[in-house]
Amino acid sequence: MTTERPVIVIAAYGTGDRTAQRSLESIDALICRRFIGYEVFWAFTGQVILQRIRASGQTTLFTRKMPIRSLEELYVHLAKESKTKAAVQCLLVHEGSESDSVLKTPAPGLRVEYGLPLLSDPANIEPTLKAMAPQFGGPTTANILVGHGSDHEARANAPFLKMEELARKSYRNVFMGTIHGPPGTASLTDIKKAGYKDVLFIPLMITTSEHILNDVTGDKPDSWKNRLGLPARVGASFAETPAVMDVFLKSLERVISRFQ
Question: What is the value of pTM for the model shown?
Answer without folding.
Answer: 0.93
